[in-house]
Amino acid sequence: MESNELKIFRAVAQTGSITKAAQALGYVQSNVTARIQQLESELSTQLFYRQRGMILTPNGERLLSYAEKIIHLLNEADKAIKDSGEPSGSLSIGAVHTVSAIHLPELLAKYHRVYPKVDLSLTSSQSDELIYKVKHFQLEGAFVKTTSLIDENFVKELEFEETLVLISNPKYTNINDLYYRPFLMSTTGCPNRTQLENWLKSKGIYNIRYMEFNNLNSIIEGVIADLGASLVPKSTIEYYEKRGLIKSFSIPEKYNTTRTFFIRRKDSLMTSSLSKFIEIIEQNTSYKRL
Are 173 and 233 in a shared domain? Predict the structure, then answer.
């Protein structure tokens, strides 16, 4: 087995397609096919089911776990040798949509000004997807919202706590009028949505109607347009509330707290690029070291 074969194998496993893997790697499709066949022959086992895409067999799943670790260690060794103390090279960060939209733009711009040699990339997604990407070495760290994160693979570097408020069009003056309105929220799995559901269920409300948006600005604009209500961090709507575009309502303390963590793999190398990124976040935001 060669490292390049493992990289090809991993790309096919991640994309579920020879064609997509070839495009991602910049290879000819026939070359990718030949290398996968060669790897299967070398290991005397079938790594993929070839039915409507490339689906890992149980042996393929086992190999993928090792391939990710091997490729990660090779990348870590390269970074460790080249890390002179001055941030440079690539840095892949992930963030949930609210963080990437509200908290990060100015900070990323500042980081780029101070450390222009770093090739910084940002991926925005749901917490579950970001956790998966960090766990599988696809991101070096990520800002995630989660009620609990019990996994020995991770380290929580930073924490930020916010207060959630119920928001509506300003014409509503009584919170009771909002209970049976549609709620503009992210998809299932969003901690804010879970908090909303727990709160409404405590009031005996189980038939909750949703309009799903995975973009905070779209949610706020929808609430202003009176499409429904939402549960969002108070800091994200202060601008709109001061201008009379939105009204907010407090909800019980048991349900009004959301926490964001910056996580990384425990066994990952703390490069100077990542260390300085964490330092800038800590110095310029309300995120606190854990």
Answer: yes
* CATH of residue 70: 1.10.10.10
Residue 89 region, left (φ>0) first, then alpha (ψ -120 to 50), else beta? Answer: left
pLDDT tens figures, 178-197: 999 999 998 887 888 999 99
Same domain flag for 167 and 234: yes
Say whether 191 sits in a helix, a strand or coil: helix
Domain of residue 95: give its range. 84-161+260-289
Is residue 262 scored above 90 in pLDDT? Answer: yes
Which among 40, 58, 81 is the end of a domain? 81
SS3 66: helix
- pLDDT for 98-140, tens place per residue? 788 777 888 999 999 999 999 999 998 888 899 999 988 899 9
Bridge pairing between strands 210-212 and 230-233: unpaired
- The burial class, CB within 10 Å (0-12 / 13-18 / 19+), for 278 is middle
**Using the 8-state DSSP alphabet, how is residue 103 labeled?**
I
Question: Degrees (nearest 5) of the Cα angle 269, 272, 277?
Answer: 100
